[in-house]
Amino acid sequence: MNPIILDKIINIITENNPESLKTMEQLEEMFPVRLNEAGEKVTVTRFAPSPTGFMHIGSFYASIIAKKIAQQANGKFVLRIEDTDRKREVEGAVDIVVNGLEAFGVHIDEGITSEGTLGEYGPYKQSERAFIYNSCIKHLLEQDLAYPCFCTPEELEKQREAQMALKQPLGYHTKWAKCSRLTDEETIEKLDAGIPFVIRFRSSGDTEKKFEVKDLIKGKLSFPQNDDHVVIFKRDGLPTYHFAHVVDDHFMRTTHATRGEEWVPSLATHIQLFAAMGWKTPKYGHFSPILKMEDGKKRKISKRKDPEANIEFYMQNGYPKHAVIDYLMNLVNASFEDWRKANPTASIEEYKLDFATMKKSAGALLDFNKLDNISKNYIATLSATEVFDAVKVWAEKHNENLFALMNEKPEYITNIFGIERTNTDKVRKDYAKWSDVEESIKFFFDEGFENSLDTVAANAENIDKQVIKNIIESYAASYNPELVKDDWFADLKAQAAEFGFAANKKEQKAEPEKYIGNIADFSKILRCAVTGQPQSPDLHQVMQVMGIEMVKARLAKAAK
Fold first, then answer.
1. Which of 445, 434, 455 is nearest to 412 (CA)?
2. In Å, how far are 416, 518, 535 from 532, measured between CA atoms?
3. How much is the mean pLDDT over the chain?
4. CB-neighbour burial class of residue 101 (10 A; exposed 0-12, middle 13-18, buried 19+)
5. Buried residues in 266-287 as b, exposed as e (16+ CB within 10 A)
6. Burial of residue 87 (number of CB atoms within 10 Å: 0-12, 13-18, 19+)
7. At what angle do helices 384-398 and 410-418 cross, to 10 degrees?
């Protein structure tokens, strides 16, 4: 490029501060290749969201893939904020990303955290990396691989319409790239006149020629070469995503770049930009999006339409972070489910992500039944104290009444959580998320508890109301809280027999005319009397936790 033109452009983009720029050699020294103690290259991955609102579940999905790759290779996981689109930036969105990652235990090795910035390869916000981008822009201009484009949006739209009318490929390429052919005199005249410009990459690609690239997830991909003279520097003084991410990945020494498959069409451009800068391309892996089934059809999760698109949705509902990450890993990799079954209590760090078995489908369906099942299984591995602590942390932010109750009666509520949690072949799995807790434990408290003989009778079909009343009153008079489970159940069966209930369904079926029900029906009457509902955790343990005074008071109330 003509040195006069180069100087004018550099003065404009640096606001007359060309001394702020570095040579490529200086930048290489500032951000050296990362080597471990053995002298081997360090695996580096990155999560690079844009601060444009809430944190999307798809973005979080991307973060755990990148984190896993780095973790299993003893590498570095970098959080980079790609904030070059000022029009779409939302205030506070960076904090949302940072807090979201930390809330789910996805810890970064470098980048922005709630306590400051980690790492020596920053800045980690693109808006603060202008001197790096501008230095690289200067390098391309010097090599005549970039040029200023003065076309207005109106001119570009007219050109687009002409291309459509002629059925030509859309874009700024070949004969349509008119600013690429401006003379030095014309360029200087426009610069001196203060005409706004962007900087475009001067592509020498030929769409008639193809190249191949091996995608970590999708395998071998084939593309036509890129011939579009893409914008790499905008009028607002910031680079485009195409250029910024290439520069950032190089100088942050990214080795594995995983991202959504919507970026596959841009891969030819990105590889071309790496080559133009003389840099090695990282290994790319493009994964399928998370989908939702609606009216029998699959569609992408919508940021606008679907509340579950927001990672905050899972936090507000109280899904344990381990369950959410386990669920997403099920979507990422086909082998994870079997691994988790074989290793129910193992840390996810012990699982090895294998690109060869990553799902290559059109997209994984978001399935809340599956998420709930995973979450229930995870919660079943926790002790009563661990459940209490987790629920309390959640309730402090999301359920004021439950939080106050847990502060008032911590031992009692811990005992509630302990029901069917130890010394049992079948651990209870009634909680899928912490927001389920308040409703499920309501019957343990007298406030708001209502019950009556009519209510119990409504749940005991074909049994006379007077018989139900007699059963409740008889049991209340004989209830002995000192009995251990087996003795308690033997006593229950004995009392049931006195009222004409069979010891089991088989016995009742053999002589139906002899019995008015079986032990399950008898237990159901007492369950409804004590808890106000036909289903509950183990009745013996429930009554043990409630205590004799509450149990007898409940029975008395239910007999009226």
1. 445
2. 16, 20, 9
3. 94
4. buried
5. ebbbbbbbbebbebebbbbbbb
6. exposed
7. 120
Superfamily of domain 3-22+130-287: HUPs (3.40.50.620)
DSSP secondary structure string, 130-193? HHHHHHHHHHHHHTTSEEEE---HHHHHHHHHHHHHTTPPPSSBGGG-GGGG--HHHHHHHHHT
Token couple for 294: 């609606």
pTM: 0.88
Check: CATH 1.10.10.350 for 453-558? yes
Cα dist from 213 to 153, 280, 283, whole Å: 34, 13, 9
User: In the sheet that 364-365 helps form, which strands lie side by side, from edge to edge?
Assistant: 297-300, 290-294, 364-365
**What is the percent of the chain with per-residue pLDDT over 70, rounded to a whole number?**
99
Q: What is the mean pLDDT of residues 44-52?
A: 95
DSSP 230: -
DSSP 3-state of 313? helix
Predicted confidence (pLDDT) per residue in 378-423, tens digit: 999 999 999 999 999 999 999 999 999 999 999 999 999 999 998 8
Ranges for all domains in the chain classified under CATH 1.10.1160:
292-379
Q: In this model, does residue 88 exceed pLDDT 90?
A: no
Q: What are the tens digits of pLDDT across the range 498-523?
A: 999 999 999 999 999 999 999 999 99
Level-2 CATH architecture, domain 292-379: Orthogonal Bundle (1.10)
**What does the pLDDT average to over 27-44?**
96
